[in-house]
Specification:
It is a multi-pass membrane protein. InterPro entries: BT1. The protein is mainly alpha-helical and 126 residues long. Helices cover 59% and strands 3% of the residues. It is elongated, with a radius of gyration of 20 Å.
Length: 126
């Protein structure tokens, strides 16, 4: 297990950022009804949302993980008593939160448009 030494409040903020888009899901549903893109109301929003998710996953998958904050001993244990090997490890957390947030926003956009499409199709079926 590697230690990247982020504070607990940073993790709580990241969780808050990742849960925030679901609060606005109804607004995305309304947006897909009010503002059609190229004459279509829901499909472009679904494509845009899943494209955002794919880009974020690709970005997170391609970017290498930083070296851990603390050094590892020869036996693989983390050496907490010694000075950090990578004091800049904390700064890499932002990019992962950005990627996870982008995944959440894209998922909410696509799922909201998909739910609205499902309701629309259900209304057309007798």
């Amino acid at each position: 297990e590697k230690c990247y030494w982020n504070q607990p409040y940073v993790f709580r903020a990241a969780v808050g950022v990742c849960c925030l888009p679901w609060v606005f899901s109804f607004l995305f549903g309304m947006l897909s009804d009010i503002r059609p893109i190229y004459g279509c109301r829901r499909q472009p929003y679904m494509i845009l949302g899943w494209t955002m998710v794919c880009i974020a996953l690709l970005m997170m998958g391609v970017c290498p993980m930083p070296k851990p904050y603390h050094c590892e001993g020869p036996d693989g244990d983390i050496l907490y008593g010694e000075p950090p090997c990578n004091p800049l490890a904390r700064e890499h957390f932002f990019w992962y939160v950005l990627g996870i947030g982008m995944i959440q926003w894209g998922s909410v956009l696509a799922c909201s448009a998909g739910s609205a499409l499902l309701v629309d199709v259900r209304r057309q079926v007798p």
